[in-house]
Amino acid sequence: MHHLQTLPMIDRPALLVVDMQNDFVRAGAPFEVPAARETIPSQQRLLGAFREHDLLIVFLQLVGIENDPYLRMQDKFTWVRGLTDDIKGCRPGHLRYYADIEAHRDCCAIIDELAPTADEVQLTKRGYGAFLGTALDSILRDRNIDGVIRAGSGKLHSQDKWNFCLTSA
């Protein structure tokens, strides 16, 4: 018989939804992660459970800007090409047509299927790291969060500095 590993007890969890934005999830988007679309139903269930129990949900969004400093790294990171002024990847307020939903949407916005409520935290980030240059660390500490579930198309990075349980969904 195969026994399941015992999971740590988490009293105050948070759900971190990372980069589930139109420019990452929608078909043909500049930063498209096709597998992200397959995770939408499970993320909807997670959101429903966290909302039902009034638990912390944080949405993290990559934001591109005009004359983005990341453009200097184009030769090292192919994804940076999406930030150029002709593509305007994840540029807040920039509307883009997405064929899979047959509509225009703000390319930086969280997808409609996972839309945050007014009382849920939304943080913008300038790179791949969710902790660097954001208030994520203080939000989690101020609320005594002892474990997080990461969902979405992106990664957290820098989570090794945390002493809580990290689970990916």
Order of helices and strands: EHHHEEEEHEE
Q: Strand arrangement, largest sheet?
A: 5-2-1-6-7
β-sheet strand percentage:
15-25%
Tell me, briefly, the overall form.
globular
Q: Low-confidence segments, ≥5 residues, pLDDT <50?
A: 157-165
Highlighted features:
169 residues, alpha/beta, two-stranded antiparallel sheet, globular
Structural write-up:
The chain is of the alpha/beta class. The protein has helices at residues 22-25, 34-38, 40-52, 136-142, and strands at 13-18, 56-62, 95-98, 103-106, 121-125, 147-152, 165-168. A 5-stranded parallel sheet has the order 5-2-1-6-7, covered by helices on one side. A two-stranded antiparallel sheet has the order 3-4. The protein is globular, with a radius of gyration of 17 Å. The protein starts with 12 loop residues before the first strand and ends with a strand. The model is unreliable at 157-165 (pLDDT under 50).
